[in-house]
Structures are given as C-alpha cells and as structure tokens.
Design goal:
two-stranded antiparallel sheet; 2 helices; 2 strands; about 5% strand
C-alpha cells in the first residue's frame, strides 16, 4: 500500500494556507474555515407592478385590457353562435379559439406592461 506522503504533489493554481493541500491528514479545505459566504446586494426591485408608471406601461395595460375584453366577447359570441361582420357566423370552436387568443395576447401585453422597461426614453 502506498502512503499519502509518497504521492507526488498535485499542481495547484493558488497557494493553500500553511502549504498543505485540502483533505490531507484530516485538514479541512482552506475555504471551509472562512464561514458563510457574504451575499451581495441585488439591484432588482420588487416594489410592485407599477402598471401606470410610464407611457409605455399605460399603453400596454390598455392594450391588455382591450384584448381581454375582445377575447371574452369572442368567446360569448361563439357560445351563442352569433355572427360578426367580415367573419360570418361563429361556432363554439371558433369562439373558444378567439377567447384563448384574446386571453393569451392580453396576458402577454400585461406582462410587457409590468416588467419591460420603456426603451429609448431612459437615455440608455
């Protein structure tokens, strides 16, 4: 059996304290004795959604509300098998598709209003 002292030293990029390698002869790694790693401050803010803070977010919120209303209207009109101009009569399937499209794009616009920055207005 080969003893640990007979092994060649491993190449390292940095020097360990007191010239030892981690785990050798029961010694802990040098970074284990330093305690808890300090946490850096985050620059992200969680102060709310602020849907009416800038012109962009106001416009995206308005578009989101209109798309939600359009989706619900198409869903109701499809359920009642009504007809709309330029599209003809709606079935329950086309009403459900209109409802889902309206709700999906309304949700996308609401997320854009809540989390996107206004763009070139900031001076970036």
């Amino acid at each position: 059996m080969v003893s640990i002292d007979a092994l060649p030293p491993e190449p390292t990029r940095f020097r360990y304290r007191s010239g030892s390698r981690p785990g050798r002869r029961g010694q802990p790694a040098p970074f284990a004795s330093h305690g808890v790693v300090s946490v850096t401050n985050s620059t992200a803010g969680t102060d709310g959604l602020d849907l009416f803070g800038t012109r962009f977010s106001i416009g995206a919120t308005a578009v989101s509300a209109l798309l939600f209303l359009l989706g619900i209207a198409l869903g109701v009109m499809g359920f009642q098998q009504m007809s709309i101009p330029l599209a003809g009569e709606l079935s329950i399937v086309t009403g459900a598709v209109g409802l889902l499209f309206g709700l999906f794009f309304g949700l996308v616009a609401l997320v854009a209003a809540a989390y996107m920055e206004p763009g070139f207005d900031d001076g970036h």
